[in-house]
Task: inverse folding
């Protein structure tokens, strides 16, 4: 009897892991890129996710125990990978915070004060759609971690409540309530961020007019 992909992964079959990577690496990359906004960081998350998946292969639920057994065989493995990616992202953010805190304790150098603003940022600021996207990304970063995670999994990555719950290790009802709060909070934060950006543009414009 031929083993399923899930059973082959649990058994440590390298070819099964190659199939898993080919099927889901792009989805994991998209998930990480949307949350980090950094292509390089997203590539690192993909690498770490599949390394962790190999290390944790024996903890993968056996055949028939997936949260959403109605999904095709390969798709049913995606919540497991998203759960690992979520933990990798959490660890990455903690490491980044520790790194930033360490840098903040170093003496400031003149070069740190003379950094030239990125021209791309100024260009994007002129485009309304891009500005809305930037405001939404800023707002998303201000959501509590659990709400940000369920929003990314359910809205961006299209997981069901059950599959997102499997990824995060919480009940589907918890996912549903977190997502409802995330939508409400994100709408308020996005509107506030857009208003703040508009105020900054008005201030800059007034300053430029006075200086002419």
Result:
């Amino acid at each position: 009897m031929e083993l399923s992909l899930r059973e082959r992964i649990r058994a440590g079959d390298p070819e099964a892991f190659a199939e898993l990577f080919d099927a889901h690496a792009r989805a994991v990359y998209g998930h990480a890129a949307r949350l980090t906004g950094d292509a390089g960081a997203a590539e690192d998350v993909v690498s770490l996710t599949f390394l962790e998946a190999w290390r944790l292969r024996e903890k993968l639920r056996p055949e028939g125990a997936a949260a959403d057994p109605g999904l095709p065989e390969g798709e049913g493995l995606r919540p497991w990978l998203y759960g690992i990616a979520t933990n990798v992202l959490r660890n990455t953010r903690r490491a980044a915070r520790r790194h930033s805190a360490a840098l903040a304790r170093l003496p400031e150098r003149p070069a740190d004060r003379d950094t030239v603003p990125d021209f791309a940022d100024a260009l994007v600021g002129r485009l309304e759609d891009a500005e809305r996207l930037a405001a939404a990304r800023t707002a998303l970063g201000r959501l509590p971690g659990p709400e940000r995670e369920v929003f990314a999994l359910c809205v961006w990555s299209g997981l069901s409540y059950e599959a997102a719950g499997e990824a995060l290790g919480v009940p589907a009802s918890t996912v549903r309530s977190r997502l409802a709060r995330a939508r409400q909070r994100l709408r308020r934060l996005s509107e506030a961020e857009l208003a703040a950006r508009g105020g900054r543009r008005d201030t800059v414009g007034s300053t430029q007019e006075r200086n002419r």
